[in-house]
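Entry 14. Structure prediction run on the chain below.
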Amino acid sequence: MSRIGKKPVAVPAGVKAAVAGNIITIEGKLGKLTYAFDKNFKVDIKDNVISVNRPSDAKQDKATHGLIRSLVRNMIVGVTEGYRKDLEITGVGFKAAVQGKVLNVTLSYTHPINYNIPEGILIETPKPTQIMIKGIDKAKVGEVASKIRDYYRPEPYKGKGIKYVGEHVRRKAGKAVAGAGAGA
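Output returned:
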């Protein structure tokens, strides 16, 4: 089932990979990541190539095989290049600013929202309506971006809110347009 799991993962120059029991550690120029995989699986490192082997051909093992391989590859990309998510804020008076270890987001609520930036994540605001989230852990970067976006998801009538850069917000016609032919 998993063709992804069978693919070997190349370890680039400048990256150290080590396996101890069921824990793999990847260390590169941007940092160090560890992952504890299922103890039934075997991860081998030979000639700067990481291969993942599954214990059986059971459906669950095949699925987990591809997952472990993908997570190992994401770790290697994370410690060499890093991950980044960009958010943009749309709306009058909506803005964001980083103050130390806190992201201060002002939306249409009565109070500003203070989001404590987690360890291993770097947040920048080049413009008051732009938020850049960077880090070496792909899952953590995505989770932080999702949490910030959830403070005010883009709404379909005016498009106000926090959205990913490049995300298309499906717009709806307002009440005046929708009800124009109904009462005539």
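The mean pLDDT is 91.
Filed with the rest of this week's runs.
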